[in-house]
Write a structure and sequence with these properties.
The protein is α/β, with parallel strands linked by helices. It has helices at residues 11-33, 47-53, 81-88, 106-116, 167-170, 186-194, 215-218; strands spanning 3-8, 36-40, 63-67, 69-71, 95-97, 123-126, 151-153, 162-165, 175-180, 208-214, 226-227. It has a single domain (3-179, 198-214), classed as 3-Layer(aba) Sandwich (Rossmann fold), CATH 3.40.50. It starts with a strand and ends with a strand.
């Protein structure tokens, strides 16, 4: 798919720009149809964005946050995505719909979570791994081939099983926002932008897609405003 690529100087500028983008979209969504549904990914990279977002003017009480993915670990395990999300957004009165990874029957829990998803997401935030994964759609995992279910449970990846939105669920996004920083992301980012289908991230589709990346991830030369296959 085509991406609106926005390169910024550093990770701090990315965080401010991304937070402003999310806040603006949320206000427009609530003005347009009375509510805003946003799915957030975990990881270290977006934490400055979420911290900045907490200070933005957002109609929080009309906004619902969903999870893009979660590790199957104990609720207090530092690897749990939800811990960081709630910490960074602790001051905002927003509704959360969280992944039920504590359920002993993970497959049924995934089905149940899928039934809670909205027909459309106003925005889905995604990251990009150095191996080209996004959400918890990782190279070689059976979840990549899932076409019917909205939520899948992965095999073990970097020590943990995970619950993740599938490509079908991500395609419910009206708007994707990719936040990509760091030199280790330069190669997979170039692959994503060019539509290289050897990486999982390139198989995500949605109505609109914006990539915000810092100079370390972006490299030279500067990209056109909109690029893609």
């Amino acid at each position: 798919m085509r991406h609106d690529v926005r390169r910024l100087a550093d990770a701090e500028e990315v965080a401010v720009a991304a937070a402003t983008f999310i806040a603006t979209l949320a206000r427009r969504a609530v003005a347009d149809h009375g509510a805003c549904a946003i799915a957030l990914s975990g990881g270290r990279t977006p934490r400055p964005t979420f911290a900045a977002l907490a200070s933005c003017d957002v109609p929080w009480r009309a906004t619902t946050f969903y999870q893009v993915d979660e590790r199957v670990v104990a609720p207090t395990d530092p690897a749990r995505n939800l811990l960081a999300l709630r910490e960074d957004l602790a001051t905002v009165p927003v509704a959360w719909v969280t992944m039920p990874v504590d359920d002993p029957d993970l497959e049924r829990a995934a089905e149940r979570y899928g039934a809670q998803l909205p027909e459309r997401f106003d925005l889905v935030h995604l990251g990009l791994g150095a191996d080209g994964h996004t959400a918890s759609l990782v190279p070689g995992d059976p979840a990549l081939a899932e076409r019917d279910r909205l939520v899948s449970v992965t095999a073990i990846y970097q020590g943990h099983r995970r619950m993740t939105l599938t490509y079908r669920a991500l395609a419910r996004a009206d708007q994707l926002l990719w936040i990509v920083t760091g030199a280790d992301k330069a190669h997979p980012l170039a692959q994503l932008i060019s539509g290289d289908d050897t990486i999982p991230a390139s198989h995500v589709t949605a109505r609109h897609s914006v990539i915000m990346a810092d100079a370390a991830a972006g490299g030279e030369p500067a990209w056109p405003e909109v690029v893609g296959p």
